[in-house]
Amino acid sequence: MSLKFLAASLMAAALTGLAGAAEINLYSGRHYDGDAQLYAGFEAATGIKVNVIEGKTDELLARIEAEGDASPADVFFTADAGNLWRAEDKGLLQPIESAALTAAIPAEYRDPNNQWFGVSRRARIIFIAKGAIDPALVQTYADLARPELKGKLCMRSGSAIYNLSLLGGMIEKIGPEKAEAWAKGVVDNLAKPPQGGDSDQIKSVAAGECAVTLANTYYFVRFLTSDKPEDKAVADKIQWIFPDQQGDGAHVNISGAAVAKYAPNREEAIKFIEYLATPEAQSYFAKGNNEYPIGSATSDNPALEDLGPFKADTLNVAAYGRNQKAAQEIMDRVGWK
Ligand SMILES: [Fe+2]
Description:
D-Maltodextrin-Binding Protein, domain 2; 2 domains; binds fe (ii) ion
């Protein structure tokens, strides 16, 4: 037995040893500061204690897999439908029936097999340097492959889940061949090799290293609402564009939650996910992490509302996971590193 596994087993014993008191063991791959409010809100509303185990999503999945049927995991909580699909694909989740969840969450934001449920939304949209490029050139995702943009794009890695999910959605809508031609066009337009996260792409645009990028909406709102002058300076240089507003709408992804296959506290786990879909929790997602509510067009967050209303793609986000392998193969073939 490896030390790491032994440590995980001891932790598992410690967590399951608390039997008696109502509680859940929450494995969270989200990396957002505001989530503590969600947990406190749930504890106050239900009296059920939340034991939080945070980690990188892939590490948490490996851990649940290693723990097997002795896993103390009740809820798996993470960003991106592609990550939830990874858990489903590994057989680590169980389907649940919840009238509250099917009522609160539009069908396109939950697993058709009820193994996971979207509880907040983010759009992956275009950001450009004000004045550096004609906004008319970049109104769609397809535009990012235009030859006029040669040397003008910054992009996050092609193995980053947010980009895999974007391409996975494209594969579903336009087919793998056209999706690959698009990805090749994007790579041909790069100003520099992919590096850094979404915030770094926005900073690169503000710094003039490139004129155009893609990032999730909440990263930009962080710059907009920051108290730091250097962040405000970044936001001032950037214009945002919701893509495909004359077509299918902007690519939307979710954060979501699922009940683990061997959840020792199954009923409490379902209550937690149901709580995430309540107006109170939806307000925490909006205020704490600038995410859009799952079931309504408006949020309880003025800065987020300032981005304006937009048309969201209604493709079921399960397509992102279903096409993830094909998306990664395309990324590898076109050299989107
Ligand atoms: Fe993120």
